[in-house]
Every structure is written in C-alpha cells, then in structure tokens.
Design goal:
Chain lengths: 297, 113
Amino acid sequence: MCTTCGCGIGQTLIAGHALKQPRKPGEAMRYRVHEEGAALAHPHTHQHGVLDGVLDFGAGAAGTHAPGISQSRMIKIERDILAKNNDYAAENRDTFSTHGIFALNLVSSPGSGKTTLLVKTIAALHGTLPIAVIEGDQQTDNDAARIRAAGAPALQINTGKGCHLDAYMVGQAMQQLHLQDNSLLLIENVGNLVCPASFDLGEAHKVVILSVTEGEDKPLKYPDMFRAADLMLLNKCDLLPYLEFDADLAVDYAHRINPKLKVIRISASSGEGMTEWLGWVAMGCRNATHRRTESPA
Amino acid sequence: MHEMSLAESVLQIIEDTARKQGVTRVKTVWLEIGQLACVEQESLRFCFDVVMRDSIAHQARLEITETAGQGRCAKCSIEMPIAALYEACPNCGSYEIHVIGGDEMRVKELEVE
Ligand SMILES: Nc1nc2c(ncn2[C@@H]2O[C@H](COP(=O)(O)OP(=O)(O)OP(=O)(O)O)[C@@H](O)[C@H]2O)c(=O)[nH]1
Ligand SMILES: [Mg+2]
Ligand SMILES: [Zn+2]
Ligand SMILES: [Zn+2]
Ligand SMILES: [Zn+2]
C-alpha cells in the first residue's frame, strides 16, 4: 500500500454511517470480473506489456483483436490528479464564505495535542460564537466524544484505512452538522504529517501542531506540511524544562521551509500562549464575518 | 503519501473521460509525476494495479513521466534544480525557494479503444 502511512482502501464512516460514494464506478463502467481474489494478496509483477501483447485480456470473447489491426486511439487529458478534490474544496470554501464561517484544518502527527487544544479552545470561546468540530480518525468516536463533552457539536469521520480527510468527506459532514452563520469550524485531521498536506478541504488555513516531545527537525523531515500551513503551534511548551528540545532551532527549521509561517508557542495543558492563539482565531472569525456582510450573496 | 487514494482519483478521471468519449477499454495510462510531489512510484504502481482491477482500465499499462524539481530563489531570483524542499539557494544561501516545477501530479494521456 502507501509506503509512508500504510493506508489502503477502507470504508469511510461519518458518525458511524457509510459515506455516499460518488466515486465508485457505475455498473455500466465495469469491465469484467476476473481472476477472483488473485491480485490483491501480493504485488503484481508488472508484466502487463507481455500480457497485452500476447494474450490481450481486454479484447473480448472472439479474439477480434488481431495483431496489427488495432482500434486504439489516444486521448489527451492533462488533468490534475487532485482536481476532483480541489473542486469539492472550492464548493466548501464557497459555503464558508457565503456563511461567514472561519474554517481551520488542524494537522499534526498522532498525539501532538490537537484534541486537547480544541477542548481548551472551545471552553475559552464558550458563549462568544458558535463552534462546530469535524473529527477525523481512522477508528473510534473518542475524540468527537471529548469535543461534545466540552460543549460543542462534533461529527466523527472514521477514514478506516485512509490516512487523511478529503474535501468530499468534509462536505458531507458539513451538511450533517448544520453549520451556523458567522461560526467557527475546527477540523481535526487524521494524525499524520504527510498526506493531509496535499488535500485542500476548503479551509481558510492549515494549522500545523508540533509538540516539543517530537524532534526539532520534524519540519525538515515533513516539509510539505510545514509549507502548506499558515500557522504553527509549538505545543507542550510546559515540558520544555524537562527536555533537551531546542525550541528556537525547531522554529528556525520551520522558517527554512516556510519563511512566512506564523509561530505561537503554547501549552494546551497549562494555558501558556493560549491568549495569542485565541486572539488569532477571533480575528479570523471577525474577518470572515466581515467579508460576508460586505459582499452579500 | 496515500498512493491508494491517488490511484482512485486517477480511476475517476479515466471513468469520466471514458463516459464522455465512448471508450470501451483503456490500454495505457500516462501520468506525469513531479519529483517533489512526494509520490512513491513503486507504491503507486502497485496501488494502480489494485484499483484498476475490474474497471475499464483493467490491466492497463502505466507509464510515468517524472519531471524534475525546479525552484526560484525569492531573494536573488535565480532559478535552480531542487531535489528537496529544504535546500538553500546555492547563490545567496536563502531558504526561501519557491517551487516553480516538479510538484505536479497529472493524468496526461490515455490509449483507449
Ligand atoms: N504536557 C502536556 N501534555 C499535553 C499537552 N497537550 C496535549 N497533551 C497530552 O498529549 C496526549 C495526546 O493529546 P491529544 O490531544 O489526544 O492529541 P491528538 O493530537 O488529538 O492525538 P490524535 O488525535 O490521536 O492524533 C494526551 O495525553 C494529552 O494530555 C500539553 O500542552 N502539555
Ligand atoms: Mg485527537
Ligand atoms: Zn497517506
Ligand atoms: Zn497512505
Ligand atoms: Zn538566492
């Protein structure tokens, strides 16, 4: 499967229910059923050239495909592989802007403190504006349950073997969440510093969370994510006295990858730096509301 | 990254095209993958085979063209080949290098019947 994160094809569930999949091939598109169960268990050996030339499996029953009489033609496509995702992301972004919703996509390695940060953020902003959360994890409803306990509506997306949220999943989840106008939408992506970097969800910003219990060189090891983000939260700073982690070096590495990256040092546990983070969020919400009232749809 | 979902996206593009153009079978698929797109080619080939199974592109041949990474320094504006995102500008040492090529992932062309 995928070498970096070991993902595969898995069934995506939103709040425990299967996702409507627009992407499954319709019956008419099915080619034909073949060698039941053979190929999935082990890698192919890439001998298609041989198969094509000699046996030509696709040629249909009566061997109408004699060598030299090829009906082949070429079709130019030139389409970005992620174009479909980008289309869905554009739809989400449209919805956000017409409703004045400020949407953030929180990305990090597993366990760097995303859910803890969200819980603290919800508690701090309670009563000031409507907040909703979309939780992405491969399995379990645990994180959504933690968010609900903190007082915000939350929808859990389980990606199964999938390693990231995509814009279609988020669009489906948004419909079920009944987002309010001028609200804050926090999306916790699957804990993974690689794949979520490539999938635009329609968010205003990706926020990357790096915790001080990881290595300083994470930004160099996972540059795509740090390049895709607009804000980095350096979390668990309460632990700095007990660690050899060089915070300045970590920030320096992050700026090598992305010189414009804004950095806030926080501790979701102790509350250090939370005021600055909350201020940044509040400003984003104000701007989103503002843009909506200035350009009524 | 997620070569599996990339392969699924490739299949969607193939099926969209096939539906519009009355294709009965896809024999070869040409992809353009940039060196900086962080795609493992071997992994993508494996996922491609799995995903294309029993589809209109069953056992299609996969041809991948790799494009080289290309960057431009934001400080001194020189252009340079780059192999990774954290390299410094060979001219001025700045790390502010904008990627101007080599991060694409594109379906280029199909050979169909
Ligand atoms: N000391 C300290 N611990 C923290 C801090 N933030 C989170 N933690 C702890 O780190 C662990 C993981 O936190 P989570 O919030 O579940 O992390 P996550 O990023 O949501 O994890 P996944 O969803 O599994 O990827 C928990 O034990 C938290 O209590 C912090 O600022 N300081
Ligand atoms: Mg979590
Ligand atoms: Zn992945
Ligand atoms: Zn993967
Ligand atoms: Zn330079």
